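Quick sanity check, PmbA protein:
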Amino acid sequence: MLTSSSAAARAADLVADAVAAGADSADVLYVRDASTQVSVRLGKLDDVQRSDGEEIGLRLFVGRRSASVSSSDLSADAMRALVERAVAMAREAPEDPNAGLAPAELLATGTVPDVDIDDGGGAGPAELKARALEAEEIARALPGVTNSEGAGASASRATIALATSTGFAREYTTTAYGCSASVIAGAGGAMQRDYASHSARHLADLEAADTIGRRAGERATARLNPVQLPSGRMPVVFDPRVSAGLLGPLIGAITGSAIARRTSFLLDAMGTQLFAPGISVIDDPHRVRGLRSRPFDGEGLPTARSEIVADGRLTGWIADSASARQLGIQPTGHASRGIGGSPGAGTTNLHLAAGTLSVEELIADIALGVWVIELIGSGVNGLTGDYSRGAAGFAIRDGKLAEPVAEITIAGNLKTMYRELVPASDLVFRGGSNAPTVRIEGMTVAGA
């Protein structure tokens, strides 16, 4: 197995082998990941899983023809066969005028930021088991909780290395920890399920197990005896658990590939007032201990904080090198990739900036509305922006949260929804994508 100190050098060696075998250019991504996951249910150990593996992916170019191959066998014979297969595949592939590595002059060759995403430690099975048991025990002890789907805890460490034939060869390591609990409240046909979870790069930042368990139990019991609302147009308020999901279609619509293919509902939106003035959407790959922080992108370009929406206006596209060439722009440092295939474009630590209103102020004037805590299905049309999702949550009556509601559908069009969006002041960074509580006026709610 490779060690982290040799990862970048091994990737660079495979690049050199590919060029020696006839490739005009190449890049290699190496990933080693070691993880432990422990799950418990009803106070007993349910499962312990340990994985420890490494993979390497080679992408090479012969002229404007390219091929990508990957392997989890890193023996010398396997690497020779990998290179030979990739060169043969590339020679038979169709030409792509936009194919190629990132421009060499743009590579992250200087000092990269320390984003502090490796705490240098770990957590063993015994510690993880104890954390999972505590989370479930606290959740099950709450009045109204009748059953458990289980709890879990995990710890992992990964090494990521990237090398290119243009001279880039760097690596970084990450750690990750998680804890979750999922429980059931009520009985028979009135049962309701909910969960709580948290993830962190440093074990010291992981939420306490009792906090996670208590939140899971309280969420499940709060959903008992839901009703359906009458259909109509009304304000919809998205809880922070789901509000960040409104950013996903935005990012998908402004990737270079979607714009180049003309398959985006925001095709003509660059520079336009997409949101209300004062609203910002920010991508920050350098957030210290961020779940998606990284010192360079999937093509070796430097990463930087970017304001995707500034004062309500869409500032531009996000693009990897191939889509940037199609659009006639520079790549933006947003390339993301897996072991197999070519890079695409995506964000890192994305967030909708907090507003000025408290949550209480945000909902104070709502006579009848919906507070959404769960979304069901994937009803977003990337071509038109039409949005329709199953939902559950709570009614809002006279500015206060009221009875739980279920089996409703909320619908609108994302362009209109973005224009009407008002964020509260309660932004907390918990995941890779974050948003505060969000209010959107006049969505269509279909209930009873």
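Posting the structure with no commentary besides this: The two ends are 59 Å apart (CA to CA).
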